[in-house]
Amino acid sequence: MVEPVKFPEVELYEGWGEPMRTECTIRGLELIEGEIPADLEGALYKVGADRQYPSGRTDDIFIDGEGMMHMFRFKDQQVDYVNRWVQTTRYEMQKDAKRSLFGRYRNRYTNDPSVDHSVSMGTGNTTAMFHAGHLYALKEDDLPYEIDPETLATIGKSDMDGQIGSVSFTAHPKVDPVTDELLGFSYQAKGDATKDIAFYVFGPDGKLVNEIWFEMPYPGMVHDFAITDEWVIFPFFPMMTDLDHVKEGGAYYEYHPDKPTHVALVPRYGKAEDIRWFKGPNATAGHMMNATREGSKVMLDLCYYDGNCFDFFPTPSGEITPEVPPFLTRLTFDLERNDDSYEIERLLNVPCEMPRTDDRYQGRPYKHGYCIVRGMDGSSGTGHINLETGELHVWKPGPGDTVQEAQFVPRSPDSAEGDGWLLVPVCRVSRVRSDLAVLDAQNVEAGPVALLKLPVRVRATFHGTWVPEEAFTTGRYNFKLQAV
Ligand SMILES: [Fe+2]
Questions:
Q1: In terms of domains, do 149 and 183 share one?
Q2: Which of 181, 379, 430, 476 is least enclosed by beta carbons within 10 angstroms?
Q3: EC (predicted)?
Q4: 353 C-alpha to ligand 1 centroid (Å)
């Protein structure tokens, strides 16, 4: 006899948040508006959290839950949709037990007694990555899970042929689609509450070309980082793990409102002894838009919170800090200056999150950014920011409806920066189903050039990636840059 499945009556699992728990294959999504661009061929992969079984707890958070990968496959001006669970160790163990075995977010001390502490709690729920011909689902506290790019069947956990020696790999890797290098890292790289960072650079063939290990100032969270041609930027915001508190069943991270921010500039192809450290005011951020270098200056553009960006992680005294808005902000680090401070400049006065770019311009001078802009009524829209002029253009799908993170796709391998499409999953909240919108990235406010209807809900996706058609055979992106 196993327990009946019953989710708790909490806001997280109500309305749009109701666990979807459904795997689908839909051949030929219905086109309800416009026309699918003829040259748009390839696949959009997105990953998010769903819930396989109720945990029996009322303190679940939206970033937890088993990974669900979604594929929108563009071919011959039709789009197929497939979604599948990422079959992690956690997923398989729960499937066998027919119930939840894992407790509070990342807290292995709250798991079912049948689960050994050495079992990874990784869910593969945060993003999709394509590199050297392989597709992966990623979550920052585990190694990548390789996924079949056609069927989304889980192939298995991967340490990249033994090349990743850390216990985990970031869910915000940077795959440079021009050089085809993969840059990624692990934090708490030797296990829970360790201070180690392992930074990796892989060549286009998937072979490791550089690896740097160093320590952060405290056992913190490093959700994202940014790259330039010479330097890689690691911000350490004061979101920390106290292992004793975790062992008592507490939150895995605590926000320290009295602690400063530390930033490490790591030489992309150098060594740990060449790392440069900077220090700034208390703040947090989850997501970086881009970084660039100009002479001795390195600029980091990020969605910056003057407070706690993860307000479901309390302070050490248990306090839930007030929600603060994220503003697109530029931090400038001057490597020739003799102090360790940096400059902070707000770039946009409208709160925005889930920043993206034309990814061919990651780490390079750029002028186009994309993000989610939230309305006062709970709705949201897709924003296009021109970094040169400061102009913001927004497309909103409709009252009460919301958008998920946009994915830029170049119009052609050599089109100019920002000339292409934005693929945007849309939550038709009141209609309890999803759409996929294809926007002209240079004219988002005109609305979709194509709108595809799903008869199901894409409950939540965090991040994703685009794989162009030819990359399925070559394993490479092969995009070209035009001179800026
Ligand atoms: Fe993220």
A1: no
A2: 430
A3: 1.13.11.-
A4: 10
